[in-house]
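Job type: complex structure
Entries:
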Amino acid sequence: MVMAVSAVHLESDAFLVCMNHALSTEKEEVMGLCIGEVEESRIVHIHSVIILRRSDKRKDRVEISPEQLSAASTEAERLADLTGKPMRVVGWYHSHPHITVWPSHVDVRTQAMYQMLDQGFVGLIFSCFIEDKNTRTGRVLYTCFQSAQAQKGSEYERVEIPVHVVPREAIGRVCLESAVELPRILCQEEQDTYRRIHGLAHLDPVTKIHNGSVFTKNLCSQMSAVSGPLLQWLEDRLEHNRRSIAELQREKEALLRELAVL
Amino acid sequence: MIGPFTGLFHAARDPPRTQSAFMSQNTLRRKSVPATARDSGIDRDVFIMAASISGYTFSSVCYHSANSNSDHEGFLLGEVRQEETVSISDAQISSSEFVQIVEIHNHEPCAQLFSFYDYAGKINEENLNNVLKDRRKNVIGWYRFRRNTQQQMSFREQIIHKQLTQLLGVPDLVFLLFSFISTANSSTHALEYVLFRPNRSRYNQRIQLSIPNLGNTSQQEYKVSSVPNTSLNYAKVIKEHGAEFFDKDGVMKDIRTIFQVYGALQDKVQAVCGDVEQSERVKEKLQEDVNQVKQQIALRKRKTEEDRRLQESQIVDSTSTPEVSTKPSETSFMSRITFQTPSAPERPSTSPNPPSYTDLLSQGDNLLSSSSTPTNAALLPRPQAVGSPGHPTPVSLATGLSLGMPLSLGANPVNTPITPYLGNGDGSSSDSLDRQAAGQEDDDEDEDSSEYENLVSEGARLPLVPASALAQGRPAALGPDGDARGSQTT
C-alpha cells in the first residue's frame, strides 16, 4: 500500500518543544499540532509545533476540536509569513505517559479521521516516564504513524512511518514562542476551571476559601514545576549562547586575520 | 503519588512520625555507622540515593544529542544534598536514614568528543578547565549519549570517570548514560537512560533518575457544593470572619496576589525568551560568517597552490620530454575523479593540474573542521535519516538530496552530506538493528566492503578514524568511543 507520506523529518528544535511538553506531566496525555510543509518527495518536514489545550481530559481522549485546528491554521499562516515558507498544519502529536508508545485504537481512528481531510496528515506519539525498577532504567520513546484500512470497511490499522530528527543548531523563534506558551496555557486552564466553580452561587464562605486555595495551590505547582524550570533553562541557554558567540567571534577574527595574510 | 522521593520513607510497624532535616553539603557526613573497609569513605548500606533532573534539562540533552552526528557528551552540574529522615515510632527509639539526593540542575555540553581527553582516555586538565571554566565547582557528574550500544560503561569511560573523580574532587561523581536505538524502518526510536555511580560497589551502582513534573493537574479538588449545615451560628461566624479573605468585589485576595506572582513570572519568562531568541540569531549569523571565511581561506589556499603548480609545471615542461609531462596530469586527473571533496563547488575546471590526493587530505582537515560545525550539516538529515536501508552509499545520499531537502545554505551548497561518525551511529545502524534482531553478528562481508568504499572515498573527511580501523575494513565495528572493537576491554 502506498502511503501519501514516505517519511517525516522533525527539526530538532521542534523535537525539543515536543519533549518539553511531553515531560511536563506524567498524569495526563498532552497534545499539540505540527506545523510544516510536505515536499514533493512525500516527506513531511515539521518545523515547529503548537501546544494545545485538552478540553476533554479523560484518558485516551486526545482529540482536537475544529476551533483548535482553525486557530492552528491561522498560526501556520503567521509562520508562513515569518519564515517565507509555505507552512501549514501537517500533523499532530501527543504523549503517552507511563504507557506504550503505540497508538491505541482510539488514536488510530482519530488519525484516520484527520487523514480524510488531509491524506498527508501524520501522527507522532511520545512515550515517557517509563521506568524499569529492576534495572533502574528510564525510557523515552517516540514513533510516527498513519492509519490505513486493509480493505474498505475493515478496522483501521497503524502504518509505521519513518521519522528522523533533523539537526538544527539554533533554536527557531517559533519554537521558543511555543515553548513559553505552556505555562500560559496551564494558567488559562486553571482560571477557566476556577471561574466555573466561582460562578456557583450557593457556596458558603469556607468552601469559597477552600476553592480559592486550590487555585492558589495549583498555580504554585505550575510555577514551580513548569515556569521555574523553564526560566532556568532559558537562562542557561542564554548563557550558553553568549559563550558560543564569544568563541565564534574570536574564531572569526582569527580566520579573518589568516585570510588577510593569504 | 508524585515526587522523586516516593517510596523512600519506609513504613515501620507502627505508624511513625517522620521528620526530615535538610543538611546541604557537598561532602557526605556519616552518623555513627560502623567503619567499613576503606573506600571513598561512604558506607553503602546506610545511604539511599535519589536523583532528579528537570524535564527541560533532559530535553536539552536530547536536543544536543540529536544535533550531533556522533556520540555526544557533557557535564552535569547541580547539587548533591543529604537528607536525614528520622522516623520515630513506638517500637523503636529512633532510627534515621540518610538519603542522598542528587539534583541535576543543568548540563554543559561538550562541543565535540575528545575535547578534554585523548584516545587513551587520558584527561588533559587544561582542556578540561577550558570546557568547564567557572562551572567546574558545580560539576556533580558527566553524561554520554551513544547510539545502538549497551547500557554499561565502556572501558575508556571508566578510565575517564576515575580521573574526573580525582581531578574534580567529587568522590561520588555520577555518570548518566543515554543509549539510543531505533527500529529497522526508523519509525520508532527509544532513548534509554541510566544513572550510574561508578565509584561504588558493583551491586549498588544504578540510581533511579526521576523527572519531576506537574503531575496531577486534576481539577477535582475544587468543591462544587458546600457541606450542608443549618446552623445559623456557623453561617454567621464564617461569613463575618471569612470576609477577611475577600476583597470588595467578592474575589479572594489570595487569587489576585498569586495571579500577580504568576504574571510577573510569565513576563520574566517572556523577556528572557526574547533575549534567547536574539542570541540564537546572532549565533547563527556568526556561524555562517565563520563558515564563509573558512571557505574563502580554503579557496584562496587552493588557488595559490594551483598557481604554484602551474608555475612549476611550466618550468618542468620547458625542460622535460613530452611523455613525462602527460603522465602527471593523467594521474592527477584520476585522483580528481576518485577523491572529490564535498564542499568545493568553486573548483576551477580550467586548471590543468588539479590538486593531488595529499593536497585534498590536508584540505580535508580544514573542511572537516568547517563542516563539523553544525550549520553545514544542520539542514540535512544524517544519511540514515533519508530513509535509506542503511548504507550511506553515495548513490542513496544523492537520491536523498534530490528529494528536495531545504538546501538554503546560500553560497555553500554541500553536495554530499557525508559527516564523519565517531560512534556506532553510522549508516550501518539500521542494518545492525536488523541483524541484532535476527541474532546475527554484524559480520556481513559484502556490507562492510561497501561501507569501506564509502569511507575510502570520503577519506579526506575522516582524519580522526584510526588508520588501523580503516585497514580492517570494518568501520561498522567501531566501538562507541571510536576504538576498533577488538581493542576494547571490559
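Summary: Chain A has five helices and eight strands. Chain A has a mean pLDDT of 92.
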